[in-house]
């Protein structure tokens, strides 16, 4: 998302979607636009730094409060990805005995843990000023054991 001044007290919003490597929130944002019947003023494809993008341009006033909801969709997707990385690392590192179940079982465990820990309490801002997932290993282990029935 890119917001630029467009004139006296006006601004333009561009939404960029990578055609080759869509992000997890792309489909959600596009569905939201369709659901709310929000149509871009201009829509085009452009190659930027060797990658193909679909761009949609809107007037800021036209999007209004929808801009906040689109931002929330993007933030939620990023939070889910951050939690998923921590959970996958936990399962991969052998902090638990994760070798005894198949991929379907692992997928179910990952989804459960991601859902359980996807709340504001488990996010912080790191030294680089970026959002980071911060889940104590002990809490992950307890939740994992509950799922596996190993209390």
Number of strands: 6
The strand line-up of the biggest sheet is 1-2-4-3
Q: In percent, how helical is the residue content?
A: 40-55%
Q: Kindly provide the radius of gyration, computed on alpha-carbon positions and rounded to a whole number of angstroms.
A: 20 Å
Would you mind describing this structure in some detail?
The protein is 45% helix and 25% strand. With 151 residues, the protein is of the alpha+beta class. The protein folds into 2 domains: 63 residues, no CATH class; 71 residues. The strands form 2 sheets. The protein has a 4-stranded antiparallel beta sheet with strand order 1-2-4-3. The chain has a two-stranded antiparallel sheet with strand order 5-6.
What are the SSEs and their pairings?
Layout: E1 2-7, E2 10-18, H1 26-35, E3 42-48, E4 51-59, H2 60-63, H3 66-92, H4 103-117, E5 123-125, E6 131-133, H5 137-148
Antiparallel strand pairs: 1-2, 2-4, 3-4, 5-6
Task: Please supply descriptive tags for the structure shown above.
single chain; 151 residues; alpha+beta; 2 domains; 4-stranded antiparallel sheet; two-stranded antiparallel sheet; 5 helices; 6 strands
Summarize the structure.
With 151 residues, this protein is of the alpha+beta class.
């Amino acid at each position: 998302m890119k917001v630029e001044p467009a004139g006296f007290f006006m601004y333009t919003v561009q939404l960029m979607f990578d055609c080759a490597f869509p992000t997890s929130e792309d489909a959600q944002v596009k569905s939201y636009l369709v659901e709310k019947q929000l149509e871009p003023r201009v829509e085009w494809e452009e190659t930027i730094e060797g990658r193909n993008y679909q761009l949609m341009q809107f007037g800021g006033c036209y999007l209004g409060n929808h801009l906040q909801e689109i931002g929330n969709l993007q933030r939620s997707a990023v939070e889910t990805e951050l939690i998923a990385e921590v959970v996958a690392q936990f399962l991969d590192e052998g902090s638990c005995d994760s070798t005894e179940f198949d991929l379907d079982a692992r997928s179910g465990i990952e989804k459960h843990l991601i859902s359980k820990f996807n709340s504001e309490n488990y996010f912080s801002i790191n030294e680089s000023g970026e959002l980071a997932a911060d889940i104590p290993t002990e809490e992950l282990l307890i939740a994992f054991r509950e799922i596996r029935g190993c209390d």
